[in-house]
Amino acid sequence: MQAQLLAPAALLVVWTLIMLFWIIPARFGAVAKLEDKSALAGKQGVRGNDLEGVIPDKANWPAHNHTHLHEQPTLFYAVVMILAILGPGALDVLLAWVYFALRVVHSLWQVLINTIPVRFALFLLSTLALIALAVRAVMATVFADPSTLPA
After folding, report:
1. Residue 52, SS3?
2. What CA dihedral angle connects 93, 97, 99 and 101, to 10 degrees?
3. Which CA distances in Å does 104 have to 25, 50, 117, 135?
4. Domains of the chain (ranges, CATH numbers)
5. Which of 9, 50, 22, 7 shows the shortest CA–CA distance to 110?
6. What is the pLDDT of residue 151?
7. Confidence grade of residue 150 (pLDDT, cut at 50, 70, 90)
8. For the whole prediction, is pTM greater than 0.85?
9. CA triplet 72, 77, 80: central angle to 5 degrees?
10. What is the dihedral sign for C-alpha 114, 68, 1, 143?
11. pLDDT at 37
12. Are 129 and 102 in contact (CB under 8 A)?
């Protein structure tokens, strides 16, 4: 069952890379359409943050989401590894898939629509799934019977 638990984590890595590549056309397209490029003139080594307030907000949304995928999901990866090592149950696998699905929907919502109430609800639901996984990981480790652990 380890592979079934690791699959949503592996796919979330792939999704994070998809969001990375989504940034390229969004930002480059917005910069190319700028009529007044004076805000970028004279800057050497322009970074993504330098584009805030220069290009339309919507063009920065993929980058904002990509950043978010490097925040809370790092906890998801750790919890999934703990549970995979100790032998996950069906509920762990289900919760991991729920977390993955909610993060993908959250990403799509943030990049395409970005209204806060729905985005927050998606974030909250994914956080609840992560909390459940974290509690299960703590229970699996703190209350583990050493005689039943894999060698």
Report:
1. coil
2. 180
3. 19, 27, 17, 23
4. 2-32+48-145 (1.20.120.550)
5. 22
6. 65
7. low
8. yes
9. 125
10. negative
11. 79
12. yes
Give the residue from 126, 71, 76 showing the smallest Cα distance to 104: 126
Q: How far apart are the first and last CA of the chain?
A: 17
Which is nearest to 102 in space by CA: 78, 82, 77, 119? 119
Q: For tokens 């069906």, what's the residue?
A: 90
Q: How far is CA 121 from the centre of its chain?
A: 15
Q: What is the mean pLDDT of residues 18-34?
A: 95
Mean pLDDT score of the chain:
94
- Token duo for residue 58: 């919507």
83 exposure class (CB count in 10 Å sphere: 0-12, 13-18, 19+): buried
Query: Residue range 26-50: average pLDDT?
Result: 84
Residue 47 exposed, middle or buried by CB count within 10 Å (0-12, 13-18, 19+):
exposed
Contact (Cβ atoms closer than 8 angstroms) between residue 106 and residue 126: yes
Please give the structure tokens belonging to residue 108: 């799509």
